[in-house]
Backbone:
């Protein structure tokens, strides 16, 4: 991918002598806008300030570039991230130098961990002031170096177009990721000749589409043919490479059960007979047990995160691994792959489907389903009706009211795990969440981006009362832009996931986890939005229905049971087959 | 095609984080990066973030006639799997053109050292003789000091420094090692 980007820069230079025909002299800020248009940018999220003012000045001459004014730069990065996740396009966010740029950091780190293509544009103090502790100067290149795929400090106006195109190429190619462009104010103001590149850059190839070697395919097919207890594990890579059909064809031809990681949810329909569920720390017991018993794992576009594997030496101890990932540095990182396939998931799955013979693994699947039924029976026996709204029924009410067509953006914490577990995912790429970094406050701004990227789909934010308050200022962005989201707050008056850990591992020492919040009905009203407060389980369905019927943004404050827990749970550092299960006494 | 045995399936991860003690060896990594702002920074950043056990790191112009390439030579001690992962991570840096991983035995490495030793009229010849054994040449002689220049392996330079200590060393400037592949191949 790096090579592809280099080629473009070189040929770009060759094809564009300084004063070629059709070149116009323009300010750097206008060249920046032109280049963004060339890349197919429609919307960007940002916040103006001193060092980025020339760009904002030029922006009014480019009405095709829709700019959304957020209330905090962190939200700009998350909104661009949500837009990118929902659409597969590169998200764009803009901030000024210094505090504007540093406020982007959490959002960039979030996108970096989850391989989301972003381009962040930051203003920088004028070149003569760089390195002199000027007002609002931060070495943002240094600050963001470990959390971006690449970053650029533009040194002269005639570099702008090339750098912007290279930045988009780097962001979207190979394993996608965030790229930052830092532009000094005087570079934005100075003039240079701009000649539009011949081909629209957005039409360029996004990655390496060469098929994996036939030898690896044969070897993988041989392993698959030998396997008695195989499993497919899918991650974000399947969604990023749009490989839903290929995954389904492969699973159906081989009849191998499918496990989806948190970021792989919705890549394979939950209603499919081969679908098993989510693995790892909060995965259902039968999924983790299946991993413990499997003799072959075909991992597609996942990186075997520690929340998935638990204690690595006890993860899939009997399984050989066929690992498909576009990033060579993921191979053998956590678990040694017997067949490492460095490839785009879509291409590899198509080739692998060709290479394998149809097989029948119904005995293995039935065994897993047996464990599943046993667990579910046990859970039903200890479940009692509760007065408070129950997280699972909130999620099924949302699904019922939207026919599964909604995009669900969850925040981070207990509600995130409930959402992953209890929502039935059928629409591809309908689940957006901050998986790798676990960024509280992600959901509301990311949902703004998702909703703008997929204007037809209802977008639901599911958040805890803690995370929602982290970027609650973005309600004003909704108000100003007239964006309609539906928000379900699972309000337990605690930082619930931390409280749960305190309950299990710190003897219920609830240190700094009880948390208050505003009256969300009044808060909604203050922003001109609709609010509801639901305290009884039997009101859930009607409330969700009413939210769907109400125009504009609706915030529902679901006051759930204060000490509800996410079950089952694997203690950190333990093997995933030893789980903490819900017991009858526990909830008494 | 050979049958894949079950033993292969249950290899304990020999990765860098839980590599068994004593699995580390020294590798010479030659990293060719484009001379762009921050390029060297990014390489060093990856080494730092991975807590790579760096022994020496040197920078210089690389390539034959292309002055836009910087050649970074870094000697790292790690397990084989750890090094392979490090190499793949370095390859992901956009500015990096090429990474060559040379196990120590397959590389020739040299370091340059300038050593300033206290000397008198009586012992100056002995110091020069000692230096000559290590291929050193004399850069400067003053009534009180003699400065030697030596290019040799890291080990030989260390030996020479130890031997010169009895005369009193005023200062040592060492360049760090640079490496090249043994044999006719061009690095790999």
Residues:
């Amino acid at each position: 991918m790096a090579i592809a980007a280099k080629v473009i820069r070189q040929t770009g230079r060759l094809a564009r002598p300084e004063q070629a025909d059709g070149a116009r002299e323009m300010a750097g800020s206008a060249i920046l806008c032109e280049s963004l248009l060339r890349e197919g940018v429609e919307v960007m999220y940002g916040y103006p300030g001193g060092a980025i003012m020339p760009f904002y000045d030029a922006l009014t001459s480019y009405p095709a570039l829709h700019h959304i004014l957020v209330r905090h730069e962190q939200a700009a990065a998350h909104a661009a991230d949500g837009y990118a996740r929902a659409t597969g396009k590169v998200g764009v966010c803009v901030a000024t130098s210094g505090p504007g740029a540093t406020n982007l950091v959490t959002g960039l780190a979030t996108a970096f961990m989850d391989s989301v293509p972003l381009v962040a544009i930051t203003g920088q103090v004028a070149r003569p002031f760089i390195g002199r502790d000027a007002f609002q100067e931060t070495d943002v290149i240094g600050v963001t170096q470990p959390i971006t795929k690449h970053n650029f400090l533009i040194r002269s106006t005639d570099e702008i177009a090339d750098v912007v195109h290279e930045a988009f190429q780097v962001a979207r190619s190979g394993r996608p990721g965030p790229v930052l462009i830092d532009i000094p104010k005087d570079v934005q103001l100075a003039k240079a000749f701009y000649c539009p590149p011949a081909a629209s850059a957005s039409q360029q190839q996004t990655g390496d589409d060469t098929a994996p070697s036939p030898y690896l395919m044969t070897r993988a097919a041989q392993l698959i043919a030998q396997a008695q207890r195989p499993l497919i594990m899918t991650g974000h890579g399947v969604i990023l490479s749009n490989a839903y059909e290929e995954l389904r064809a492969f699973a159906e031809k081989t009849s191998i059960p499918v496990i989806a990681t948190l970021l792989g949810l919705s890549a394979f329909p939950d209603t499919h007979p081969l679908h098993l569920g989510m693995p790892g720390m909060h995965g259902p017991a039968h999924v983790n047990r299946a991993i413990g018993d499997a003799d072959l794992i075909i991992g597609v576009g996942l990186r075997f995160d520690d929340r998935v594997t638990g204690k690595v030496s006890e993860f899939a101890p009997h399984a050989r691994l066929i690992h498909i990932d576009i990033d060579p540095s993921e191979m053998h990182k956590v678990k040694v792959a017997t067949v490492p396939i460095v490839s785009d998931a879509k291409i590899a799955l198509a080739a692998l489907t060709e290479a394998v013979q149809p097989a029948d693994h119904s005995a293995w699947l039935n065994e897993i389903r047996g464990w599943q039924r046993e667990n579910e029976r046990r859970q039903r026996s200890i479940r009692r009706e509760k007065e408070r709204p129950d997280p699972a029924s909130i999620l099924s009410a949302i699904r019922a009211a939207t026919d599964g067509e909604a995009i669900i953006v969850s925040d981070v914490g207990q509600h995130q795990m409930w959402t992953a577990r209890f929502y039935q995912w059928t629409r591809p790429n309908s689940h957006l969440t901050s998986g790798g970094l676990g960024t509280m406050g992600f959901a509301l701004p990311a949902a703004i981006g998702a909703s703008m990227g997929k204007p037809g789909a209802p977008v639901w934010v599911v958040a805890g009362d803690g995370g929602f308050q982290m970027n609650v200022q973005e309600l004003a962005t909704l108000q100003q832009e007239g964006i309609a989201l539906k928000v379900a707050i699972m309000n337990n008056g605690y930082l619930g996931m931390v409280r749960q850990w305190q309950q299990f591992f710190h003897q219920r020492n609830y240190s700094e986890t009880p948390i208050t919040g505003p009256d969300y009905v009044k808060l909604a009203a203050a922003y001109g939005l609709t609010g509801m407060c639901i305290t009884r389980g039997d009101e859930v369905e009607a409330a969700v229905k009413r939210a769907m019927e109400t125009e504009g943004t609706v915030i529902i404050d679901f006051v759930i049971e204060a000490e509800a827990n996410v079950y089952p749970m694997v203690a950190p550092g333990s093997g995933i087959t030893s789980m903490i299960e819900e017991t009858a006494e526990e909830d008494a | 095609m050979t049958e894949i045995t079950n033993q292969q399936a249950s290899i304990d991860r020999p990765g860098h984080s839980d590599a068994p003690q004593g699995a580390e060896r020294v590798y010479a990594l030659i990293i060719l990066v484009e001379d762009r702002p921050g390029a060297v920074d990014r390489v060093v950043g990856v080494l730092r973030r991975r807590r790579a056990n760096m022994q020496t790191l040197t920078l210089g112009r690389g390539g034959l006639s292309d002055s836009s390439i910087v050649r970074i030579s870094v000697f790292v001690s790690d397990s084989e799997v750890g090094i392979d992962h490090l190499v793949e991570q370095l390859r992901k840096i956009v500015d990096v053109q090429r990474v060559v991983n040379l196990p120590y035995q397959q590389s020739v490495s040299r370091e340059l050292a300038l050593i300033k030793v206290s000397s008198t009229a009586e012992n100056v010849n002995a110091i020069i003789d000692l230096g000559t054994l290590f291929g050193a040449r004399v850069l400067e002689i003053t009534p009180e000091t003699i400065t030697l220049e030596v290019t040799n392996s890291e080990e030989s330079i260390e030996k020479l420094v130890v031997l010169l200590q009895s005369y009193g060393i005023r200062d040592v400037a060492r360049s760090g090692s640079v490496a090249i592949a043994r044999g006719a191949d061009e690095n790999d």
In short: The interface with chain A takes residues 1, 4, 8-15, 18, 34, 37-38, 41-42, 45, 49, 81, 84-85, 88-89, 91-97 of chain B (CB under 8 Å). Helices of chain B lie at 6-9, 39-49, 80-91, 124-133, 154-164.
